[in-house]
Amino acid sequence: MNRQMQRYFIYLSYNGKDFCGWQTQPNAPSVQETIEKALSTVLRQPIPIVGAGRTDSGVHATEMVAHFDTEASRSYVTTELAERLNRILSRSIAIHRILPVRQEAHARFDAVAREYKYYISFVKNPFTHELRWMHHHRLDVEKMNEVAGVLFDYEDFTSFSKLHTDVKTNNCTITHACWHWQDADTLVFTIRANRFLRNMVRAIVGTLVEAGRGRLDVVGMRRIIEAKNRNVAGTSVPAQALFLTKVEYPSEVFDTEYNG
Predict the structure, then answer these.
(1) What is the DSSP letter of 28?
(2) Contact 131, 75 (CB under 8 A)
(3) Assign residue 44 a region: left if phi > 0, alpha if psi is -120 to 50, beta otherwise?
(4) pLDDT for 115-155, tens place per residue?
(5) How many CB atoms lie within 10 A of CB 103?
(6) What is the DSSP string of 47-70?
(7) Cα dist. 45→37, 74, 97, 212 in Å?
(8) Residue 181: helix, strand or coil by DSSP?
(9) What was the pLDDT predicted at 4?
(10) Residues 47, 93, 32, 189: is their CA dihedral positive or negative?
């Protein structure tokens, strides 16, 4: 019996240490390629996937979403496939759930919001050093949040974008950008927007750290953004402390006939 092709969203997390980033590359392992191989092995046919974004080399995700199509039975895909995939994937990748969506749903273009977190540690810790950026001087968090507030007044973030990318626009709408203490020794920056540019979060964090060190104020931040020049912004901070933490979609993209 011929089954119809069904599209699914696959929710996963990964430690980016061992990967060249999300997107498939010719000479290095990527998260996308690794999951495609696992899906193709389990479903016994080539299964390409499309991710919600492209995290850079070394960046992690506690929630990434990708879509794929298959003719396999819906009951198998939604109840057993995630477990089968987890059995053959390395410890660096975990599949959390797989949900049926409408056939035209798109993991990247239908996402309405994405959230990232960046972690700074001020105390040496052998158990977290691979997931934090160690900073040796305390920062003025109140000042960093004051300067971060400037981000809400702009849409063009060319000054925080990697140069020579193929995107058609550098406009983004930032709806949340705030620093808070996770504990006495860990500072976390959370930023939320409808979309992000290549290297954008790490460049913003590097610039806000300058504010925390007393080297940048609100007026200076406005000048940086309005210059639309990557060379005037701060240095990009290391990748290992950056996490994609959430991808959100409108309810309309999900298959309303699914009751799982």
Answers:
(1) S
(2) no
(3) left
(4) 999 999 999 999 999 999 999 888 999 999 999 999 999 99
(5) 11
(6) ---EES--PPTT-EEEEEEEEEEE
(7) 10, 16, 21, 52
(8) strand
(9) 87
(10) positive
According to DSSP, residue 236 is labeled P
Structure tokens at 19: 């990967």
d(CA 70, CA 42): 12
Contact 190/178 with Cβ under 8 angstroms? yes
- Angle 200-212/141-148 helices, nearest 10 degrees? 130
Entry pTM: 0.94
Amino acid at 98: I
Residue tagged active-site, from 56, 156, 183, 217:
56
C-alpha Rg value of the chain to the nearest Å: 20
What is the CA 19 to chain-centroid distance, rounded?
Answer: 14
Q: What is the model's pLDDT at position 257?
A: 65
**DSSP labels for 76-136?**
HHHHTHHHHHHHHS-TTEEEEEEEEE-TT--TTTT--EEEEEEEEESS--TTTGGGSEE-S
Active-site residue flag, 56? yes
CA 81 to chain CA mean position, Å: 24
Lowest mean pLDDT among 57-66, 119-128, 159-168, 185-194: 159-168
Residue carrying structure tokens 């977190």: 117
The string of pLDDT tens digits covering residues 4-63 is 899 999 999 999 999 999 998 888 899 999 999 999 999 999 999 999 999 999 999 999
* DSSP state for residue 171 in the 8-state scheme: B
How far is 108 from 247, CA to CA, in rounded Å?
Answer: 9
Tokens of 98: 């797989």
